[in-house]
Design goal:
By secondary structure, the protein is an alpha/beta fold. Helices cover 50% and strands 11% of the residues. It is built from 19 helices and eleven strands. The longest helix is centred in the first third of the chain and has 30 residues.
Length: 485
């Protein structure tokens, strides 16, 4: 047996022996071990082998005791010497000296605490190496960021470990309290995305929910998500990973929503002195929002998970936006899968993340390429009508909506589709097309296509301003209306 527990590295060998002895006395004690506890939390290498053997034996329905454990251990570990004892003698000693099976959770907590301390010391060594061995500043920054992310993960793990465990009775009481608060108007049950049409469809967004916003190209799904994000940031810190736009584009779009001055005009500088003042005012107003973290790198799902962990630890974000599922960076075998399988994998893991981090995750996804094809009709008018009235459903979206999503919103605008059907200007069909364009311009539908909380499918028509890429009434008008209430 490795005797290096006398080295300075922090450990609690007694707790490790106690938890193994308790489990060997009564295998049912495993149920009290936290789900986050893992074999690598043990400091002593032999204890890791013993615990792993117990888990593998129980997985196939075997009763694990000092005799049967050895058959699930690798030969080199099973015949290792523990001082003057054999492994068999050591296992028997663990059982004979076991204190209590009632304290298994406390033993696991103590072991995990020392594991976190060793992790922190190892990260300190990594930081020292980064300072002394990094070849240039960029490599130094990358390595220090890795250290920071690891430390943040430790803090988050410790905090979740110390959170009081809520019983079913506690959860029932809490849910009733929240409902009573909502009835009295004391507090909303969830968060308000700031767009009345969405609130009507979905109700307040809840923690642990995966909310999908889908739509076709140029249908306005990103605009809808960004509008919700900036609305939320008035009251809470939020995070965003965007593979679609740069930070500058996102900020300019939000300034366009607040001022009515399009981002195109902002970029070209075709604005008056008064409009410059308006843009400055909008910028100052945005600076007063809660923390918004905007990361425009393509990231893997693991990197997104680590990012959320860090943002919760450092800023306490209460919602995270991903734009979009098609921009996730894949590695390994998934890199070569089609978008359908990638989408299924993405929504499954994103739902797990929402549950793990206890926040809503709002993820964008696009429609399958075949959604807006082959409009049927003998005449141009019939084909035009088919294009205007076809509404996508959650089945048209990339990802596994039935299984993973709590709410699925689909944005639909007929205008880009109708615009693409423009006939020759001097044709008989042109007046029909022109009339259709007048009817669809400035309008959009938000469709609740799937929901675990509300009746679906339902839809709400909403105003759309293409120049400012915004939904609903103009920003100032909406703010004035809000102040009246």
């Amino acid at each position: 047996m490795n005797q290096n527990y006398r080295d300075p590295l922090p450990s609690n060998i007694e707790a490790e022996q106690a938890i193994l002895g308790a489990i060997l006395i009564n295998n049912d004690a495993l149920a009290a071990v936290p789900s986050t506890f893992a074999m690598e939390h043990f400091y002593e290498r032999l204890h890791q082998f013993i615990y792993d053997a117990i888990l593998r034996g129980r997985a196939v329905g075997k009763g694990m005791n000092p005799v049967t454990v050895r058959s699930f251990m690798a030969p080199d570990a099973a015949y290792e010497k523990v001082g003057d004892m054999t492994v068999a003698q050591y296992l028997a000693r663990l059982v004979s000296e076991a204190v209590s099976i009632r304290n298994v959770a406390d033993f696991a907590d103590a072991i995990t605490g020392y594991y976190h301390r060793r992790q922190a010391m190892s990260i300190g060594d990594d930081a020292h190496d980064a300072g002394t061995k990094a070849e240039d500043e960029l490599q130094f920054i990358d390595r220090i960021k890795e250290c920071r992310d690891k430390l943040t993960a430790i803090v988050a793990s410790i905090e979740s470990r110390n959170d009081p465990q809520e019983t079913l009775a506690d959860t029932i009481d809490t849910s009733l309290d929240r409902t009573n608060d909502a009835v009295r108007g004391a507090a909303p049950v969830g968060i308000d995305p700031g767009i009345p049409e969405i609130m009507t469809l979905t109700g307040p967004w809840q923690r642990k929910q995966l909310i999908i916003i889908g739509g076709g190209v140029k249908q306005g799904k990103t605009a809808l998500a960004m509008q919700c994000m900036f609305n939320l940031a008035e009251k809470m810190p939020v995070g965003l990973n965007s593979g679609e736009m740069s930070r500058t584009q996102i900020v300019m779009r939000e300034k366009a929503r607040r001022t009515g001055i399009s981002s195109t005009r902002q970029l070209r500088g075709t604005v008056s002195d008064n409009e410059v003042e308006e843009l400055l005012w909008a910028g100052e107003e945005m600076k007063r929002l809660q923390h918004i973290d905007i990361d425009c790198r393509r990231m893997t799902l693991d990197q997104i998970d680590q990012k959320i962990t860090r943002l919760i630890g450092e800023h306490g974000i209460e919602a995270f936006f991903l734009d979009h599922i098609g921009k996730i960076q894949w590695t390994g075998k998934m890199e070569y899968e089609d978008e359908f399988k990638q989408g299924q994998r993405a929504t499954s893991i994103l739902k797990d993340m929402a549950q793990k981090h206890d926040i809503p995750i709002i993820a964008l996804t696009h429609l399958k390429k075949s959604t807006f094809q082959d409009y049927q009709g003998r005449t141009f008018k019939e084909r035009l009508s088919a294009a205007m009235n076809r509404r996508p459903t959650y089945r048209d979206l990339v990802g596994n909506m039935d299984k993973d999503a709590d709410q699925v919103l689909v944005v639909f605008q007929a205008r880009p589709i109708v615009a693409g059907m423009e006939p020759a200007e001097n044709s008989d069909d042109y007046p029909v097309w022109e009339d259709a364009m007048n009817r669809v311009t400035g309008r959009a539908d938000i469709i609740l296509s799937l929901s675990r909380e509300s009746e679906f499918p339902r839809r709400k028509e909403i105003e759309w301003d293409g120049k400012s890429t915004s939904y609903g009434p103009p920003y100032k008008q909406a703010m004035n209306a809000r102040e009246l209430f």
